[in-house]
Amino acid sequence: MFRRLETDRLVTMLERLLDYDDHFAHVGAFEICAESIERDQRFVQLGERFLDRLFSDFSRLQAASEIFGTAFVIATAHLARHERLRRTPAFWRRLVAATHASLVVRVSGVVDATNKELLAWALSI
User: What is the pLDDT of residues 36-74, one digit of tens each?
Assistant: First the structure.
């Protein structure tokens, strides 16, 4: 679908995504940039900005990943035990859990602190 968008519009959309604290969205945006390099050279610089946003602060990336993992584990368990939702296919429940976890990362206000205890707690449950 992104290939059909006008180049200027796609660049604008991706630039706005740089303001979000969602590391999975940044990975996806980087992939779009990589696929679009032949289309327009602006995607080279934009892709570099996404890589910088992802890896310039590794402790922040680690904290976001730990929050994601915690939310994913809890959501997956809840969906598997839910009276109605446990009847849905496992792939659907995992997709819903991942979407939920991504939203939790966005709204959590990721800080540069480790959340390993929280993730360990979620895994133990």
Answer: 999 999 999 999 999 999 999 888 888 888 888 889 999
Q: How much is the pTM?
A: 0.71
Reading the block at residue 25, the tokens are 């969205």
Closest CA to 106 of 58, 67, 74, 48: 67
> For the chain, what are the domain ranges?
2-55, 58-124
Residue whose C-alpha is closest to residue 38's, from 7, 1, 76:
7
CA distance 46 to 37: 10
- Spatial CB neighbours of 101, under 8 Å, sequence gap ≥ 6: 67, 68, 69, 70, 71, 72, 75
Structure tokens, 109: 């206000």
Question: How far apart, in whole angstroms, are the C-alpha atoms of residue 16 and residue 76?
Answer: 30
- Buried-exposed string 32-66: b where 16+ CB fall within 10 A, e elsewhere: bbeebeeeeebbeebbebbeebbeeeeebbbbbbb
Where helices occur in 2-87 by DSSP H, the ranges are: 7-17, 23-35, 42-55, 58-81
